[in-house]
Write a structure and sequence with these properties.
It is built from eleven helices and 14 strands. It has 393 residues and is an alpha+beta fold. Strand 8 and strand 9 form a beta hairpin. Helix 4 crosses helix 7. It is globular and about 60 Å long. The chain starts with a helix and ends in a 6-residue tail after the last helix. This is Fe2OG dioxygenase domain-containing protein.
């Protein structure tokens, strides 16, 4: 039955994939033209502290060049394996939650393969109404369209501030900046959200609750795929009190997308991230040393494994590196919900796994891990390297 899902995916996504490829080719041609026309020009002298919003900056300046502090591409010749995009696994949540033992067992096996081989997959039949995700996207765009003055009350004051609006990653402590505006909200264990635009808070609450239900089902399946009880990861991470972080990312068109990034290669800090976007491509994941475009199926969730799941699985299911690339024609928006352990829970490998193998990472409170990740370079998997044990001894 999972095989049938793959077949339907191929049929559904043919026109969608063609549109994505065509847009990608057009963007590459325009980017190349921009490179030629501006190769000898000097980037504008702009103090990054003056840019409180990329959206506002691009709309007010109408610039054809970007400030040099946004030149974040380190290897312009990174290989992108376009042929691999169609190989990203597609899983059906209704099969994973089936009461039929045979169907469920097959689904758990497919989930194990996706986690071990890719660290990312698309989830269909997840039970979240398409009308809800569309309304959430519309309200999120309305928020980003609010005048800056109206969003000042949400200015970013640190990683544990309940509601944060800003630009880049954390621009005050960066030397290189990223072409992104964001809204970051802690939505669990206590729900927070902006009170504007009207109706945004209510839509976001419903969506965040449904996402927690999906994440719980996936964690139960992942536990089983590791040979553990279905509640093992949920109990060992205190997921019932787990931190849920809600990210609304806006990537405006960039005049020089070959020089800048929306976000650099990084892994997420939680157990898993569930992502939707507005139909504009830009998400890429690292697979077998190559970058792969993620072209989500309509009404699917993109599931990205995070650092805490790599720790809990004792390294069996690795968090996946991913990045956000840019284009010079369309605004991309993504909504990523990071589902993590309880902030004060000390997280290590599932106890049952350590009965037969050595720990790969030292245990650390999730709250402390977040601080480690904030203090290390926001790129690659630097946070995990800090807590990795020398297993050769």
């Amino acid at each position: 039955m999972l095989h049938a899902s793959h077949l339907s995916r191929s049929h559904v996504s043919t026109s969608y994939a063609f549109h994505t490829v065509a847009c990608g080719i057009e963007s590459q041609i325009m980017a190349s033209a921009a490179t030629v026309s501006s190769s000898e020009a000097e980037p504008p002298k702009v103090n990054a502290s003056e840019i409180s919003s990329i959206k506002a900056f691009t709309e007010s300046k109408g610039a054809t060049l970007i400030p040099s502090t946004y030149h974040s591409v380190t290897d312009p010749h990174d290989h992108v394996a376009h042929d691999f995009a169609a190989s990203i696994p597609v899983l059906d949540l209704s099969l994973l939650t089936s009461c039929d033992p045979q169907i469920h067992t097959i689904a758990v096996h497919e989930l194990a393969k996706a986690c071990a081989q890719w660290g990312v997959f698309m989830l269909i039949n997840h039970g979240i109404p398409e009308s809800l995700t569309e309304e959430l996207m519309n309200k999120s765009r309305e928020f980003h369209d609010l005048p800056l003055e109206e969003k000042k009350e949400f200015s970013d004051e640190g990683p544990f501030t309940p509601i944060r609006h800003g630009t880049s990653f954390y621009s005050e402590s960066e030397k290189v900046h990223y072409w992104r505006d964001y809204l970051k909200v802690i939505t669990f264990p206590q729900f927070n959200f902006p009170h504007k635009p009207q109706g945004y808070r209510e839509v976001a609450y419903e969506y965040s609750q449904k996402i927690r239900g999906v994440a719980r089902n996936l964690l139960e399946g992942i536990s089983e795929s590791l040979g553990l009880g279905s509640n093992s990861i949920i109990e060992s991470t205190d997921f019932e009190y787990g931190l849920q972080s809600f990210f609304v990312n806006l990537y405006p068109p960039c005049p020089q997308p070959h020089l800048a990034q929306g976000l650099p290669p990084h892994s997420d800090h939680g157990l898993m991230t569930l992502l939707i976007q507005n139909g504009i491509g830009g998400l890429q994941v690292k697979h077998d040393g190559k970058w792969v475009d993620v072209n989500p199926l309509p009404n699917s969730l993109v599931v990205i494994l995070g650092d805490q799941l790599e720790v809990v699985s004792n390294g069996r299911y690795e968090s996946v590196l991913h990045r956000a690339i840019l284009n010079n024609t369309d605004t991309r928006m993504s909504i990523a919900v990071v589902n993590g352990p309880a902030p004060d829970k000390e997280i290590g490998a599932a106890p049952e796994l350590l009965e037969k193998e050595k720990a790969v990472f030292k245990s650390i409170k999730y709250r402390d891990y977040l601080e480690v990740q904030q203090k290390t370079r926001y790129a690659d998997k630097s946070g995990l390297e800090v807590i990795r044990l020398n297993t050769q001894q």
